[in-house]
Design a protein that fits this description.
Blueprint (H helix, E strand, L loop, with lengths): L14 H21 L17 H230 L12 H4 L1 H10 L11 H10 L1
Helix pairs in contact: 1-2, 2-5
């Protein structure tokens, strides 16, 4: 199996050469980026004045920051290179395992084919042996059949001679037997006609019985179907009554909830009005009433924000958020 090649289309390399070239390119890039770092030394020829301590610290910090960033990038490149090598090594091992598995399967396939050839050869020999035995048996059977045929011919000749002798003796006997046979046939025909007549009567009675059974079965099915329809109609009516009752119950419950909500809103409105009157009577400057709130503070999103901060209990001015919300709805 040909080894896989890596690299550009015009520069195919083996795996080891490809890894070596990538490592050399990586080292060249690292050295180039390090050599291009800006110098942090001061030019004493152009500026005779010594730098202030603040500027020196700033340049040192900038240089240290660049060095740390360069070190982080270098470590990241090394980590990426290490991961790439691990992936390549894992890929190489996987391909080796696949190659070993392929070779194992090829060996197993070759072994299977060898066994099949051996089995086929064994079967061929068995067939040849069986064919030879069959031919021998066929030849023996043919000889036995020939001997049996000659023996039977001899026996047939003797039998015919004996039959001719008995034929004359039995002629009278056969005549008498023929007469008796005709009598028996007449009697058997009479008995057969009577049997057929009885069978016909039995079939007629069976057909009548089956017809009655079928009529009774159909009647029972019709009765069962009518009963089922009546039960379904009664069930449907009961379900409609129950559904109507449930709808009525839900309607009453909904009206009761609406009534309770309306009473709660009226109660809250009265509490808020009492609260506003108390504020006006006390005239406390540190508590903002509705007429002291700005447009931003009265905005619904602002109230939601402060309600979220104070867990929905009071706004930033000590006013109950629920009461203030009712007042905003009135506006």
């Amino acid at each position: 199996m040909r080894a896989k090649r890596y690299g550009d289309e015009n520069n195919k390399q083996s795996l080891a050469e490809y890894i070596r070239s990538k490592r050399e390119n990586q080292q060249t890039t690292t050295s180039t980026s390090t050599s291009q770092k800006p110098s942090t030394t001061t030019n004493t020829n152009t500026n005779t004045t010594a730098p202030t301590p603040a500027k020196t610290d700033s340049r040192s910090q900038s240089s240290s920051q660049r060095e740390r960033e360069e070190e982080a990038r270098r470590k990241e490149r090394e980590e990426q290179e290490r991961r790439r090598k691990e992936r390549e090594e894992e890929e190489r091992r996987r391909k080796e395992r696949e190659e070993q598995e392929r070779r194992r399967k090829e060996r197993e396939e070759e072994e299977r084919r060898r066994k099949e050839r051996e089995e086929e050869e064994r079967r061929r020999k068995e067939r040849e042996e069986q064919e030879r035995k069959r031919r021998d048996e066929e030849e023996n059977r043919r000889r036995r059949d020939e001997e049996e045929r000659r023996r039977k011919e001899e026996e047939e000749r003797r039998r015919k001679e004996e039959e001719e002798r008995r034929k004359r003796e039995d002629e009278e006997k056969r005549r008498k037997e023929e007469e008796e046979r005709r009598k028996r046939e007449v009697e058997e025909k009479r008995i057969e006609d009577e049997r057929k007549k009885r069978d016909e009567e039995r079939r007629r009675r069976d057909a009548e019985r089956r017809r009655r059974d079928e009529e009774e079965r159909q009647a029972r099915e019709r009765e069962t179907e009518e009963k089922r329809k009546r039960e379904e109609e009664e069930k449907r009516k009961r379900e409609e009554d129950e559904r109507r009752k449930r709808d009525e119950q839900r309607r009453r419950e909904k009206e009761e909830r609406e009534r309770q909500k309306q009473e709660e809103r009226e109660k809250q409105k009265r509490e808020y009005e009492d609260y506003q009157r108390k504020l006006q009577n006390n005239n406390k400057p540190h508590i903002k009433t509705k007429d002291r709130l700005t447009d931003v503070e009265l905005n619904e999103s602002f109230q939601h924000f402060w309600g979220w901060i104070h867990n929905g209990k009071k706004d930033d001015f000590g006013v109950s958020k629920k009461l203030l919300h009712l007042d905003l709805e009135e506006k």
